[in-house]
Amino acid sequence: MNYLRVVVVVFLLGPYLIMLGRGASGNQISARRVINLAHRQSAWTPILQTSANLSDIRSIRSFFEFRTLDPEGTIFYGDTKEGKDWFVLALRDGIPEMQIGKADILVSIKGGRRLNDGAWHLLELRSEGKFVVLEVNNNPELVVGLRSELTEDELTGKIRLGLGGMLVDKQKLFNPFQPDMDACVRGGHWLNLSTLWDTDPTWDPRPCFSEIKRGSYFPGTGMVTFNTSDLPGVKTEEAGITIQIFGSWTGTLLSLQSTDFEYVLGELDEHTDVKVQMGLKEGSETAALPREPAALTFNILKHSLVVNSKPDRETESLDFFSMWKKGMLLTFGGVPGESEDAKRSHHLRGCLEKILVQEQVIDLDQALYKHSTVSSHSCPTEAMNELT
């Protein structure tokens, strides 16, 4: 089993083993509280779900406040007939999108204002006969009409609701999307239900920041790993591969690993002004950064690594271009496989406002592995200013 495969297995089994340790079911909470839709391992399963008899429902109407900087992800889901008829509200490019499956009909419609501006918006979803209506801040944004000879006008049985995920197979989607949603919901009124909702056992309930700005927030407890073969590659040998990072941070910024090579880019220790040593393999390298970085450029050339235009590692025995194309682990925020003590001491803490690889913005939701504590698209305006 090769190095990448071992690391991936560890990443994937870790959350599963944790889930086994605390039981297969989550807790129950009120869906009217402030809810952070992020911070869980299962991307498609709702973080909260509930069900009710349709005979108890007086109005097919739900409204809630919603805030995000994330351009894409799942917000709200509902179905009847155990998923035969279903509905999902999501964002794509920051714009609301509704997808509906009913009898022989599949519908996808997108439109209205962008909602990923970091402001709170009042969203209302309601059914008006054969129409589904989405209002944003009391203004109708999307209206979808459905008619089929196979549909039933009278609804019976149960209705299921979910937040931040779906209860049907993603293969049923008319237009696939990335499900992870870094967003907050508050003040929800879900139909006329007052019951507690079941939580996903992999969801890590966390407070919502009172004020947010764009970026990816690392609280000092987790990391994000990409396989370099999934990232943009070499355009020209002269230019190499460029990684640009903007923000403010402390701790380990990034690490680059393959079967027989490991390189770590971290800060100077605040007490000793020496390079942080992290128990690296023989022949590996550790580089140091200033304490208050605002931007960093990391260049990978065929036989050298360059930090802020200064050569940091040179070798004729390694071809970094071939290694990048074949697949290395590029990790932001830590070093996969290091000891627990090192993780606690050196994990990245701060806000990475933007990460560019070959001038393309990198979305952490597309990573091979992302720790549940890392916020992909939002940072607190003040690191410790959180809304409980």
UniProtKB/TrEMBL annotation:
Signal peptide interval:
1-26
Q: Which InterPro entries match?
A: ConA-like_dom_sf, GAS-SHBG-PROS, Laminin_G
Keywords for the protein's UniProt record, in alphabetical order = Disulfide bond, Glycoprotein, Lipid-binding, Repeat, Secreted, Signal, Steroid-binding
Main subcellular location: secreted
Q: Which GO terms describe its cellular component?
A: extracellular region
Q: This protein's superkingdom?
A: Eukaryota
What does it do? Functions as an androgen transport protein, but may also be involved in receptor mediated processes. Each dimer binds one molecule of steroid. Specific for 5-alpha-dihydrotestosterone, testosterone, and 17-beta-estradiol. Regulates the plasma metabolic clearance rate of steroid hormones by controlling their plasma concentration.
- Assembly state and interactors? Homodimer.
Q: What is this protein called?
A: Sex hormone-binding globulin
The species this protein belongs to is Triplophysa rosa (Cave loach)
Lineage of origin = Eukaryota, Metazoa, Chordata, Craniata, Vertebrata
